[in-house]
Amino acid sequence: MVKHLSLFELNSIVREIISMSLPDSYWVEAELSEAREAYGGHCYMELIEKDERSNTPIAKAHASCWRNRWMLIKPHFERVTGQRIHAGMKVLLKVHAQFHENYGFSWIVDDIDPNYTLGDMARKRQEIIQTLKEEGVFELQKELRLPMFCQRIAVISSASAAGYGDFCNQLADNGYGLQFVTSLFPATMQGEGVEQSVIAALNQINAEWEQWDCVVIIRGGGATSDLSGFDTLALAENVANFPLPIITGIGHERDESVLDMISFRRVKTPTAAAAFLIDHLTEVYVRVMDAQETIVQNVKHRLQVERMRLERLSSGIPVQFSLVKTKQGARLDRLMARLSSHVQEKLSRAQRHLEILSQNVQPIAERKLLNESHRLQMLAQRMKAQDPELLLKRGYSITLKDGKSVRSAGQLKEGDIIETRFADGAVKSEVSKN
């Protein structure tokens, strides 16, 4: 009968074989697809290798760095590289093989060479810079000009960052009493979300860019190991093509990041960014004050010159006035003579015209009066012929009702009182039948 092994026995054999076959440690190049620190202080990593042409994975492995080693490796790595270990980073690990009956196979990390990662980071940074130069945008920010009165500041920072408060306090407490207007556009300033968060804040500012004079990207109070998000092509392209000058003060202690290289102006800290803006506006203030003093002096000099000129002119005014008075008097006399002659001529012409009109009008008026007198006589005769008194004297009578003449019997009704007038009197009667 064939002898059976338990799973534990089988795994124990595998562990012994691996322990005997791979007793040494090995330096291995790999890319991190995942890196996380466990609650107990251990660090667990997923390693991957990709095909250079197709970028598809060709090898994967699990690696662990126990707490006692990780506490020594981590600070040294972050101090040299300026970054925390994270997914996507290429690393050179010193590992040895370990197989555990319960947890299976794993590479145990003994050491990490930060210089290898630093070299890879420098290579990536150089690739980004080369891409930006090929696109022709590497120097675009440098070609911008900070507005003379740069006072409206759009700030990209974490709302809780100490550096943001330091920046605002520095601007507010400047020695010249210069006024600045700031508005915060919150963004994640450390960790893997930096790129997307800062780009989103830039898009918000770009939507109202005419309201701002410049943009300040500041970060304070965080570890330098959280700055990898500022070394990305997408963020660099956004900053390079931005229409406003961008000032960075993100606190790099090592070489400047791609974001620093591409920005309009790079300073080390948020307070340095505030000092730069204060110095710029102070220079403008001094220039304005100097220009004001120059204008005042020029005006004073000009007034003095004009005052002297007026004094010279005023001294010659009496003589000039006398000459002008004589010339103008003679001119007025000539004008009066011409005016008098012209008026006399006009009056003579008008008088002659009136005489001619009067001679022509009189015969016409006399004929008109004679005709009208004859017409009036004829009308008088006709009126006399129509006089009612003459009719009454000829034997006619007039019947009146209520003072009005009655021309028809239809105007009367039974009981009406009528008056009949004759040449020598009048009688009243009552209508008894109509």
3D architecture notes:
A hairpin with a 2-residue loop joins strand 13 (417-422) and strand 14 (425-430). Helix 2 (67-81) runs parallel beside helix 3 and helix 4 (162-172) runs parallel beside helix 8. The chain has helices spanning 7-21, 67-81, 114-135, 162-172, 194-206, 233-240, 258-262, 270-315, 317-385, 388-393, and strands spanning 25-37, 43-50, 57-65, 90-100, 104-112, 152-157, 181-186, 214-218, 246-249, 265-266, 398-401, 404-405, 417-422, 425-430. Helices cover 48% and strands 21% of the residues. The protein contains 10 helices and 14 strands. It folds into 3 domains: 7-120, Nucleic acid-binding proteins (OB fold (Dihydrolipoamide Acetyltransferase, E2P), Beta Barrel), CATH 2.40.50; 126-142 and 150-284, Response regulator (Rossmann fold, 3-Layer(aba) Sandwich); 391-431, no CATH class. The protein is an alpha/beta fold and 434 residues long. The strands form 3 sheets. A 5-stranded mixed beta barrel has the order 1-2-3-5-4. The chain has a 5-stranded parallel sheet with strand order 7-6-8-9-10.
